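Data availability (excerpt). The following record was deposited with the supplementary files.
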Amino acid sequence: MKNTSLTIKIWLAISIVGLTLYLFLILIMPNLIRNVFTDTLKQRPAAPHSALTESAPPFANLRGFKIRDFIILADGTTIPARVGESFTDALFNQIKRNALAQQSPLKLHESNDGQTHIRYYIQKGMAYGQPIYQVRFLRKSEEDHFVSHLLFRIMLYAGIVLVISWIASIIIVRYLTRPLVQMQQHVKRIANRNWHDPLDIKQGDEIGQLAGSIETMRRQLVQQEEAQQSMLQNISHELKTPVMVIRSYAGAINDGVYPKGDLAGSIKVIDEEGERLERLVKQLLYLNRLDYLATQNPAWEKISLDKLIQKIAQHINPQRPEITWQLNLQPVDVYGDEDTLRVMVENLLDNHLRHAASRLEISLRWDSLKSESVLYFWNDGSQIEPHILNEPSQPYQKGREGKFGLGLAIVQRIVKMYRGQFSLKNEKNGVSSTIIIPSS
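Predicted structure:
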């Protein structure tokens, strides 16, 4: 059943429901009809007292059925007086005994005279201070004829309705599953990396919401592919430059030529380009590692973020001793991975320190109202270009001095792992970065 198509499943479900209702009607309809008939009989008004005479007709028609209706008085006499001639003595005496012994106002009785099964009601009343008993009954054969005739018509009409419901269910199922089939074909095309054709299903129900999610996924895949293509082009150019410099300098030195005037200066250039190449490769590998970590459930531990920042700042501070540092770090503990938090702080701190003119500020505080830690960096360097400010997380986005990098992209990925927020701003004649990490 799991491998059955949704069309067949929905059709079977509707058909089973319709068939169940059909069988249910067939099973309960005979008793239902009898109950309706007997309820009608119970509600039939009694004949006026003035009509209870010898001349009153012993039979009356009610919806096409011959109903016997007569009165038994407290002394055992009947009205009409000769009504007993229509029954056997045993059956008539049994009816009289049941009537005289009845205590409830209305009661159903069943009797059999050997030939006919009879069902009748005895209704007890009062007249002139004396109890009277009105007997109303019908023959079983007449009731069965009525039931079978009506049941045949109901079964015929129910069968017609069942066939119509089956046809209608097929039409409805095809209508409902058409967009699902369309989405299935579209997802197959996406799986084959053919995701440039949009999915156009405009419905406001759950199917439409699913189609909207698939279309959103398609757009994100298109954007991701474009970003990957751009990244491959940029990274190939960025990696090619130091490789070319290293090879050209190495070839020149091998030929006895020193591009920087002497051997030490030329080797220094090779070492700097090698360091730059190493840093780019490490960042690229770490970015891929973050993509892997995002799919895992690491065991996080309690980290003192303020002490970690202070330790990193002391390590990086000698790189530019002319910069004035201002640290305002409140004690803040977060749950996470120390390595990812360290890389996040190092990348941001390295970025701000590299572009600072004379001053660098770092603050850390805990917002108790929102249950989140707020990490703030600011430097007084040149402001950021608008395209970098709007898209800080794009890998190898070309930034200041025409260079590409992965630092801000790594920061953005790490912050996303912690379900936090990262923002860049041009403010106070400088640049600020803010990281908000919610409490786990």
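Summary of structural features: The chain has nine helices and 13 strands.
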